[in-house]
Write a structure and sequence with these properties.
Residues 240-369 form the GGDEF domain. This protein is an alpha+beta fold and 369 residues long. It has helices spanning 16-37, 44-71, 76-98, 105-138, 143-156, 161-211, 221-238, 252-259, 261-278, 302-314, 346-362, and strands at 242-249, 284-289, 292-298, 319-320, 326-328, 332-338.
């Protein structure tokens, strides 16, 4: 492909070391242009390596150039401006290297435009001014005298100075635009990252809500069914025991009817905590819905489950509201069932526990069926 920066004799400063390093910068910019726009398959790693080499070479050249004109005694006004120009270039290339900007044709063209325009302006304007002043200093003038004479020279060069001034303004605009685009991309990436994190938090919360009862904080029916099916398969495979307790609050409907659903919710939360406190660490307490709860007892036969049920009954505690009124007696009915060879699914065990529960309720409640 055509070179993005064409070297010409007009760029010569008559300072051999400076001219040689300028041509090195041109070669690196042209190489970056080939990598960016060539038809061959080019990896991002190759492009980043070329940028890094350009940055490293530029920093070396700038240090050499600055040592040279400072040692020669160039006027501080030129030295300060020249060093600011160098630092501006370094900052811009570093920004291009670190910004995760879009990899499209317009982005590539902006980068190459900046590099080419900056180097052309810098050589034709700043470095040529430096070279003229160094020649004057070598001829016996002071740095201050050389600086003032060079200002007069540039004012007389009416044909080129407006072009250099315009090119400088263009570079300033391109640099500002690149910084704005980099900041926009950074801001967008930050927003995307924040939004992704927020979605992850929402999804995690939804996952919790999918398997957690909002009122009591216990695992809900979905979780209960999933856990019981997994434990059922394990019990069948390993021929181990598995039992469940199904229970509900006796005469709970009267609580809602007389004291309202808010009090009913308080009763259910208290009952949920009571069950947590009564069961063993390996047992799983779930709320199926309404005032109906399920306790899954892994690797526990009916006898072990009955002991848990007895402990639940013994932990009975009436619920009294803020006004001192007895809202609920604390009585529960419990149905116990364990896995049997005649059962074909976990649902069969639930049905057996449900049947035992209603037998207990039929006998007046506050007991195990």
């Amino acid at each position: 492909m055509d070179e993005v920066f064409k070297w010409s004799p007009a760029f010569m400063t008559e300072l051999p070391e400076v001219d040689a390093q300028h041509q090195g910068l041109v070669r690196l910019i042209n190489r970056l242009g080939v990598l960016h726009t060539g038809g061959e398959e080019v990896s991002q790693r190759q492009i980043d390596a070329a940028r890094a080499e350009l940055l490293d070479y530029g920093q070396t050249h700038f240090r050499d150039e600055e040592r040279m004109f400072i040692a020669a005694g160039i006027d501080p006004r030129h030295a300060d401006f020249h060093q600011e120009e160098h630092q501006g270039f370094i900052d811009e290339v570093q920004a291009l290297m670190t910004a995760e900007s879009e990899r499209c044709g317009n982005s590539v063209r902006r980068e190459l435009d900046y590099l080419v325009n900056w180097l052309a302006y810098h050589i034709l304007g700043v470095d040529q001014a430096m070279a003229r002043q160094l020649r004057l200093i070598k001829g016996g003038l002071s740095g201050e005298q050389a600086f003032e004479i060079d200002i007069e020279h540039r004012q007389r060069m009416s044909a080129t100075e407006p072009l250099l001034a315009a090119l400088n303004r263009l570079i300033t605009l391109v640099s500002a635009r690149n910084r704005e685009l980099a900041e926009l991309n950074r801001t967008l990436e930050q927003r995307v990252s924040e939004r992704t994190a927020e979605l992850a938090r929402v999804n995690a919360r939804l996952q919790v809500l999918t398997y957690e009862d909002e009122l009591t904080g216990l695992p809900n029916r979905r979780h209960a069914v999933s856990a019981l099916e997994a434990l059922w398969l394990e019990a069948k495979r390993d021929r181990t025991a598995l039992s469940v307790l199904m229970l509900d609050a006796d005469r709970f409907k009267g609580v809602n009817d007389r004291f309202g659903h808010a009090t009913g919710d308080e009763v259910l939360r208290a009952l949920g905590q009571r069950l947590r406190d009564a069961v063993r660490t390996s047992d799983i307490v779930c709320r199926l819905g309404g005032d109906e709860f399920l306790v899954i007892c892994p690797r526990s036969d009916a006898q072990g489950a009955m002991q848990v049920a007895s402990k639940i009954l013994a932990s009975r505690q009436p619920h009294v509201n803020a006004a001192g009124e007895l809202c609920w007696s604390g009585a529960v009915s419990i149905g116990v069932a364990e896995v049997q060879t005649s059962m074909n699914s976990a649902e069969d065990m639930l049905k057996a526990a449900d049947k035992a529960l209603y037998e207990a309720k039929g006998k007046g409640g506050d007991r195990v069926g």
